[in-house]
């Protein structure tokens, strides 16, 4: 019997806790920071970091706006970087550079906490800005970065990516990211990452060299949990959540995604991904937009998912290179009036079961798929419930209504 649902959630994220309270505190004003939004406070802030002993310490930013002309670099372990709160402490970048970089030089870095700071960078968008450069950047290209907690921060008004993660055991929680460059959060060669309870919206860029944007992009990464985030107000050629190639063990749970423009996709999924309990709202309906797009890879499961709003194109698409895509308890409340709601194209082994299509023109298009299973669904459409096309070895159970 074809396995329908994974027996376990794929992603078991390693527990991450922030650094313990360090006895040594380094107030940046003791090192000459002004905080008037005009003076260059980068040398003072970096001096505070440089003064931290090997055992670690806490760098504190009192209320103020601290302008920095170059990236602030964290190069040691066991460090807390704490502001007075996102409405009181602002780091203002002056130019097209990272605001904060966790970057090992002499040895690996671990146990870092970043909290209570607003990051902003009103520099003009440049064609040089892409997904490799973040306002906050965790960079383990030379040596390892592990155990980083980012919580209660704001990133806004920047042409750069919000947060770039090239590190392991990272937690990003309770933060707001908006009006950024190509991506809100971008994972590249990361492992054991939790992204939970964040607001991510208005991801846009004037850079014509960049072909796509996303709220959260996961690329070449393993064991990632994306849970209880709110993603909205994207622009053309955008993805709410984009799982790229060579990523595995990805869990996308209970997120709310609102689309607001044409040529958008709520979630594009890749191998060994489970998406459960998500809500995707298509808004007023835009040409070329879809709720779920499984482009390629194997064993993707979409469970307990509600698709609302209006749709012109099929809200669910399974591409020809996908294998064993599984849909269980998916509800489409207001489907495309002139198109199919599930388009299985030329995929292999797709399963649609226990799902509901409550309105729309057509139901499920099997296309040229092989081994499709259509089991126990409710399909309420104006025209045809199914189209087998050139599909082969398919099964449609009488339980469908």
Layout of secondary structure:
Layout: E1 25-27, E2 36-40, H1 42-50, E3 57-61, E4 64-68, E5 72-74, E6 79-83, E7 89-93, E8 100-102, E9 109-115, E10 118-120, E11 134-139, E12 145-151, E13 154-156, E14 161-166, E15 168-173, E16 176-180, E17 183-188, E18 191-196, E19 199-203, E20 213-219, E21 222-227, E22 230-232, E23 238-243, E24 248-253, E25 256-258, E26 264-269, E27 273-276, E28 279-281, E29 290-298, E30 300-308, E31 316-323, E32 326-332, E33 342-343, E34 351-353, E35 356-357, E36 364-365, E37 373-375, E38 378-379, E39 386-387, E40 395-396
Parallel strand pairs: 1-3, 2-4, 3-6, 4-7, 5-8, 6-9, 7-10, 8-11, 9-12, 10-13, 11-14, 12-15, 13-16, 14-17, 15-18, 16-19, 17-20, 18-21, 19-22, 20-23, 21-24, 22-25, 23-26, 24-27, 25-28, 26-29, 27-30, 28-30, 29-31, 30-32, 31-33, 32-34, 32-35, 33-36, 34-37, 35-38, 36-39, 37-40
Distance between the ends: 22 Å
What is the count of DSSP helices, taking H or I runs of 4+ residues? 1
β-strand number:
40
Strand content: over 45%
Structural class: mainly beta
| Large-scale geometry | elongated
Helical amount: under 10%
Radius of gyration: 23 Å
Task: Tell me the major beta sheet.
Answer: 27 strands, parallel
Oligomeric status = single chain
Low-pLDDT runs? 1-8
Can you give the mean pLDDT? 89
